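Purpose: get a first structural picture of the assembly so the mutagenesis plan has something to point at.
Setup: two entries, given in the order below. No constraints added.
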Amino acid sequence: MAQKNKAGTKKQGKRLNVWLILALILLYGLVQAGIMTGIIGGFYENVLMNIGIYIILTVSLHLIIGITGQFSIGHAGFLAIGAYVSAIVTMKLDGPFYLAVIAAGLAAILAGILVGLPTLRLKGDYLAIATLGFGEIVRIVLLNIPYVGGASGMRVSHMTNWTILFVAVVATVWVIYNLTTSAHGRALLAIREDEVAAESMGVHLTYYKVLAFAIGAFFAGIAGALYAHNFYQINPGNFGFLKSFEILVFVVLGGLGSLSGAVLSATFLSIVNTLLQSFPDIRMILYSLVLILVMLYRPQGLMGNKEITDLWPFTRRAREVGER
Amino acid sequence: MEWLQQLINGISLGAIYALIALGYTMVYGIVKLINFAHGDVFMLGAFVGFYSLTVLHLGLIPSLLLSMAVTSVIGVVIERVAYRRLRNSPRVAALTTAIGVSFFIEYTMIFARSAKPEAYPDLFSGQQFELFGASFRVEALYILIIAVLLMIILQWIVHSTKIGKAMRAVSYDAEAARLMGISVDRTISWTFALGSALAGAAGVIFGLYYTRIDPLMGLIPGLKAFIAAVLGGIGSIPGAMVGGLLLGLVETLVSALGFSLMRDAVAFIILILILLFLPTGLFGKNVREKV
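Result (structure tokens, whole complex):
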């Protein structure tokens, strides 16, 4: 009986994949058509860009906090590195945009490894403060480099478009989904649940923590490149602790350990962000209240570690990732 | 005599850090929580002091006391509303809540009175005094007197009163303290009250010395004070005092050498180095990891 069920879900899983790919192509085509015909105007296009960039950021931090359990609150540092490196490639070196995106990701990986190797020996709140320190150091260093404009920042031309954004978002979600369902992903989950137990089962703690950190940093760097080339101006002030906090709220609200939760909360909150654009104070008050209330009454986040597919019996996973 | 002047600057800054760091370290010692909102309590203290000096026209000492009273109540309320429920949940949940509380205070303040900075009234009309051929602002003297006095009072409370004894007992072993009939909740409330009062006092003297206050002023000094607490060994009261002074001196030194823009970065680099090579700080106890 159990075997039959398992085989059934496998088959269903395959069918689901086909539908998913079709749906994605349809989504891409519809939006692209909308943009080309001008039905989706500049404002809505910008909202879409924001949603995409925040999905990448949230999913990448989800890998670090939700899956690996490493509480990092300096994610804006990687975003900043990606933004600046890509801006240097396109604006100062006149390189093509796709190269800038890749360079941004690689630079962020490098930063992730450099920061991760020493700091990931720390735990819990100490790690949090050290990563916060990292984010601040990045911001202060950028402030003091005249080559990238110091406090006034850099002018960047608008190059992010729907195609590259869509590819980046799908790639991010796909890579992180596959990573978490692989053997490596189980090692990361084991670290989240209990470091000592994971280590005694042969999980190389430092290697896996740095791996998660580097991959998270890579995608944050890519998000940085897209971010920089979506707005016309970047400056160090865009990448302060507030930004890290924002991403943290997105991850926590979606549910610590839920990929679809991360995507949903990033989508929803980016829209809320846009709606509250002219009331930044109220937005921050709301965010902090939501964060406090979620932590007090539903500390696992809105989705917990469930995925959206678990809501309907016919798409439920055979073995739940990170089931507690 | 420039170095002497820098020394006094460093000590004044260090005394402010030390006062804030005491609150961090006491709270951490007792509930193992980095009270992220502590820097914002410091900010509120500065504003209470400012309004009581300018609107209520009170003197310096009454303003200081009023600010300490208000911030201690705020500290107790924060603990009661936001942290008490989370005492037994994972530390990360409590830390996230603390960050939320911090932003809530900051942006409620901005919402209530806009983000514009205020200038503290000049109580001493720029008076200076001479010492060994160097001249100092009178405020520096006040900072030192107030800070030292408060630290002596704190030492007395922690070591010679009943509530101090209860605080030490709870931070040593909360369960055993409860069995001995100590009300753990009440002791934790007292700890928050004391720590927040010190932060409030630090806010007032910060305003006196640096003049400019604004709703986001708590973030950086708060983080620096946390670094000071880690430097001295978190959970240790003398450690927080020494750590605060050291950090103040180092920062002033960095500024004096002409790297004032990198000052904040240096503090964070110190933090990361300390966490890596001396995680228990200068005065901390070594706690063995148990499975």
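The radius of gyration of chain A is 20 Å.
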